[in-house]
Amino acid sequence: MKHFLVLLPLLLIGTTMEAQSPGEALFMENCVACHGTAGRGDGPLAAGLATKPANLTEIAARRNGVWPMLEIMSVIDGYSRNTLPREDMPVFENLLDNEMVEFDTGNGANTLVPAKLIDIVEFLLSLQDPAPTSYVP
């Protein structure tokens, strides 16, 4: 019985911990404060921002079911800062300085992009409600 009581907390921890994908871990680390744990724009810092954080679960729905991979990558990496109204949206440099992977930009030529950037955008894809009906790079 003593052994069971010692092991019980370890068993409970093991059963309540969920495995996170690399993209989900990056989302929790970088996005939850403003976008909330479900990505709906209701994080604890959202009310104090000049621009309301986007509901990240409706990216594809706002684009008639199309998942725009490159556009989302550009918003996160900051390259579109001059064209989008996102004064409060930080540039996530920690997502850009890491392992590079090949990515097909849609023109048949692969280009190297940060692996973490791909990870977080793929996690955002998993949040879409409803799921996208088509995809563009």
List the helices and strands and how they pair.
Layout: H1 2-16, H2 22-30, H3 32-35, E1 66-68, H4 69-77, E2 100-104, E3 110-114, H5 115-126, E4 134-136
Parallel strand pairs: 1-4
Antiparallel strand pairs: 2-3
Helix pairs in contact: 2-5, 4-5
Keywords:
single chain, 137 residues, alpha+beta, two-stranded parallel sheet, two-stranded antiparallel sheet, 4 strands, 36% helix, globular, disordered N terminus
What do you see in this structure?
The chain has 137 residues and is an alpha+beta fold. Helix content is 36%, strand content 12%. It has a two-stranded parallel sheet. The chain has a two-stranded antiparallel sheet with strand order 2-3. Helix 2 crosses helix 5 and helix 4 crosses helix 5. It starts with a helix and ends with a strand.
Oligomer: single chain
The number of helical segments is: 5
Sheet-strand content, in percent, reads 5-15%
Class by SSE composition: alpha+beta
Give the tally of β-strands: 4
- Cα gyration radius (Å): 18 Å
Helix content: 25-40%
| Through-space gap between termini | 57 Å
What best-fitting shape do the alpha-carbon axes yield? Answer: globular
Give the low-pLDDT segments: 1-16
SSE string, helices as H and strands as E: HHHEHEEHE
The mean pLDDT is: 85
Note the main sheet: 2 strands, parallel
Q: What spatial order of strands do you see in the largest sheet?
A: 1-4
